[in-house]
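Researcher: Please predict.
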Amino acid sequence: SGYWNVQQGAMDKLIPALVLLMVMNTCGEMNMTVGVGENVMMNSSVVVVADQSMLTLWCDGDSGGWDVCKWYRPNFGNASESDSCLYALNQGDCPQGPGFSHWSVSKRSSHCSLSVGPVQPNDVGEWKCLLLPKNSASGGKFQEIILERQDIREPDINFDPGSELALQDGESHMFECRTSAIVNMEPSSVWVVGQVQYPGNVTLAQGAPDQGVSSWSMVTSLDYTASLSDSGRDIQCVVTLSDDLANLVTFSVSWSGLSVTPGPVQKAGFATWKILLIVLVPLLFIILLLILIASCWFFGVCCFSSGKKEKYDESDDPDNFYTTSMQAHVPSKSDNPIPTKRKARNPAPYIDIDSLTPTIKSHPTPPLTLPWDPYSDIPDQLTHYDYQGDSSSAGSLSSLGSSEDEDRDLDMGDMLGKMGRKFRTLERLYREERSDEEHDGGQDQGDTVSYESWV
């Protein structure tokens, strides 16, 4: 056959197996299973495997197992026994052909395993496994099971925003891409702008099977914000499909009609609402303050009322000097005005307090007796004391009466006036008294005023 090339020594391995097949008879039917990788498939199932991937097929049977296993590949001729990949007598032999991927057969556990790859486009079609049950008599028959391999078909991607699209910097635009795919696994999609990838929003719906393979409809959208750096760059809708062995295949459609122009230049400084806020807030505060001041001035509801009087403090009234200092009530000037003319008053005779007989009898203090003399260690010494009052004009307290005439020459009104505001009433009294003395000429000498003395 022009589709295959038997390697050297292959016929030597096939002859014993062919002789064995001729002398064996079947002794019963068996149930067969088939699978891809670790997955068990049903008879005549379709398996999607991408080109350039490794493919592992297997088949098995119950009822005591099998003795001989044969695999047939698609597009390889399959006109004779020599076109199959045979495993018998613990040996496997598979003819290789140009334009076909390498294949080999082996027994793993109880499976008849076939390894193929990397698969080529010629490997699309039916893969058939034939098993001969053990202890088959002469004329025994093989039982077969089939798997169909399909390549990943290119999806239909519809992405056409138009010939050109002009956007301003910062402007938003929605791109949309629609995809139809024939694959058993769910497809996925992303966006690529220049070299930057964006996930996008994907809506996926599964349709009716097509030749035993699931179909999908997918809508992917991208909410794009224009940037000056993206002007002239390609925008791609990228779709990723996965085969039944988790091999990923990527398809994409590009579009390069994007142009981005600079947006309007924003003026530096504050926005209009910020300026209004800065102006209106202080203005509102000033208006409220003016309203408050006007209310206080017109209605006297606040501290600006002219009718509000200060709190009276008797200690600051010079007319109440006697009340605060002598602790006795003296009528105020407004209640009992002081007459302008008063009689002269002579001072009371001087009384020496030291010459008075004490009214309180003193009780002798009991002597303090100590068991020891606290001053025994201090020697007796003479102590000199200083004397005070040598420069006074009065020799003793009894001589104060002799300076009575000199005191009369003093102007008590001037002295009290210099002592401050609290002594103004006394100043006025002394000035009026001195004026009365000068006016009366010393009349009514018998009137005396006695003062009480406190010690």
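Model: The helical segments are 10-23, 272-299, 321-326, 404-408, 412-417, 424-440.
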